[in-house]
Amino acid sequence: MSELRDLYQEVILDHNKRPRHFQVLAGASHRADGYNPLCGDRLTVYLQVEGGVVRGASFQGSGCAISKASASMMTDAVVGKSVEETHALFESFHRMVTADIDAPVEPGALGKLAVFAGVREFPARIKCASLAWHTLYAALRAGAETVSTEGAPPPAVAVETDGQR
After folding, report:
1. Can you state the percent helix, strand and coil of the chain, rounding each to 5?
2. Which of 10, 16, 110, 161 could join 52 in a cystine, given CB atoms 3.0 to 4.6 angstroms apart?
3. pLDDT > 70 fraction of the chain, expressed in percent and rounded
4. Sign of CA dihedral 137, 69, 116, 43
5. Average pLDDT value for residue range 36-41
6. Is the CB of residue 62 less than 8 Å from the CB of residue 71?
7. Cβ atoms within 10 A of the Cβ of 50, count?
């Protein structure tokens, strides 16, 4: 577990200092705002979805290192994936970070994102790691409300393809 903890810390620091896709995405077809009142994290996720595929993803905002790193890695992970694959990735990530601390991590579906299993050791930080993901989920639903980590779990995704539901 020590190796995973070290990797977790290294990845978080790298993506916090040099976040990927940290910008407003020109031509975004979807966007949503997210807020974690416990930590003060605020971010906006932008997506360019064409033909049922996420062609571009970015984020902007401010937050703790875990929140920023999660958003950075998430935007890397979803580009090129179908909306359905993106939804499945959300579900896998959410299951992983909310699982019991002793639950095995299946890195196959999550790849590099499996490093966030380390957040389970710090229950107060799970919402920091999952904020970007819930905001992504809302963007795919084309929801106008701000997503909050203190609300009810998100409803099922209504898949939107080129403006059509």
Report:
1. 50, 20, 30
2. 161
3. 84
4. negative
5. 89
6. no
7. 12
Angstrom distances, CA of residue 28 to CA of 23, 68, 115, 130, 144: 11, 20, 29, 22, 14
Q: How far apart are CA 8 and CA 23, in angstroms?
A: 24
Q: Are 155 and 47 in contact (CB under 8 A)?
A: no
pTM of the model: 0.83
For residue 57, which amino acid is it? A
pLDDT at 155 over 60: no
| CA nearest to 119, candidates 138, 133, 108, 140 | 133
- Catalogue all structural domains in the chain, each as residue range(s) with its CATH number: 2-148 (3.90.1010.10)
